[in-house]
TrEMBL record:
MF annotations from Gene Ontology: transferase activity
The GST N-terminal domain, residue ranges: 3-84
Cited Gene3D superfamilies: 1.20.1050.10, Glutaredoxin
Residues passing through the membrane, by range: none
Pfam families documented for this protein: GST_N (PF02798)
CDD domains per the UniProt record, alphabetical: GST_C_8, GST_N_GTT1_like
Protein's recorded name: Glutathione S-transferase family protein
InterPro entries: Glutathione-S-Trfase_C_sf (IPR036282), Glutathione_S-Trfase (IPR040079), Glutathione_S-Trfase_N (IPR004045), Thioredoxin-like_sf (IPR036249)
Keywords: Transferase
Amino acid sequence: MTTSTITLYHNPQSRSAGTRILLEAVGAEYTVEPVDFASGQNRTPEFLAVNPLGKLPTLVHGEAVLTEQIAIVIYLADRFPQAGLAPAIDDPLRGPYLRWLAFYAGCFEPAVLDRAYKREPIEASASPYRDYDTVIDTLAAQLARADYLLGDRLTAADLHWGNALKWTTGFGIVPMRPVFMDYIARVDAHPACVRARELDAALLADMAPPPASSAG
């Protein structure tokens, strides 16, 4: 395995929080390049040369640049197979694993953003996710089957979904159904989630502006 450096462009108050969890979970050695939105660091020419959208997460591994959440989840879980967080290509669970990752990107996130911004729904037959309620009910039904998306086995998909549901229920975009809250609690207790929270708390403290000095 290559020892190329992994760099995560990161702000703990962004989608890159989930990527840090995955990096901790797979045991990767990585460095963090903090991105301060308040000062516009995500719009500098240097950062836009890496990710023209100016968005996080952005991850660089050697010559590979990855910019989409689900691409990063798949990449890291496959790149570090010793972590056991992704079904192998010939595993019967590989298809469902990819399904629920794609469901996040193609259905869940567009649905919750449309709901959050109060966008008028389009005709269900033309919508890529049908409608918000169907997306939420479909996810809830799957999580009611077992502890994790694929049964008793936690995968990288769960680490991603658990973090996403923690954020979206916290903001009131997704209802706090017991099935969601129990799932969030199970995933959030994973050592990688605990470690990432600790690291991000320290990073936020470092990124905070110094207190204004008072005149004597």
